[in-house]
Amino acid sequence: VRKVVDAKSLTLPRHDMVESDVCSMMQSYTSAGNITYEGGIGDSHGDFFWSLGLAIKGAYLNPVTAKAIVF
């Protein structure tokens, strides 16, 4: 998600809850070296972050039909 936003391929909507939820996610590593993500606001548990990540992955896997991501 960060790579896409940093590359300006996607702009987050100007909505406080969406921005806060997406920006609250933090990457960390387990003792075994696996990547985990923690964060979210209130009861969301990063719902906007995860849905955005799935939309980006879907667009990446099927670029012919994914001309634009509307969020």
Task: Explain the overall architecture.
This protein has 3 helices and 2 strands. The chain is α+β, with helices and mostly antiparallel strands and 71 residues long. The protein has a two-stranded antiparallel ribbon with strand order 1-2. A hairpin with a 5-residue loop joins strand 1 and strand 2 (35-38). Helix 2 crosses helix 3 (47-61).
Low-confidence stretches: none
Structure summary, number of beta strands: 2
Shape: globular
- Computed over alpha carbons, the radius of gyration is 13 Å
Strand order of the largest sheet: 1-2
Topology pattern, helix = H, strand = E:
HHEEH
Helix count from the secondary structure assignment: 3
**Which bin fits the share of residues in helices?**
25-40%
Strand content: 5-15%
| Biggest sheet statistics | 2 strands, antiparallel
pLDDT averaged residue by residue: 83
Determine the N-to-C terminus distance.
13 Å
Q: Structural class per helix/strand content?
A: alpha+beta
List the helices and strands and how they pair.
Layout (H helix, E strand, L loop, with lengths): L1 H5 L9 H8 L2 E4 L5 E4 L8 H15 L10
Antiparallel strand pairs: 1-2
Features:
71 residues, alpha+beta, two-stranded antiparallel ribbon, 3 helices, 11% strand, globular
Report a brief summary of the structure.
This protein has 71 residues and is α+β, with helices and mostly antiparallel strands. It has 3 helices and 2 strands.
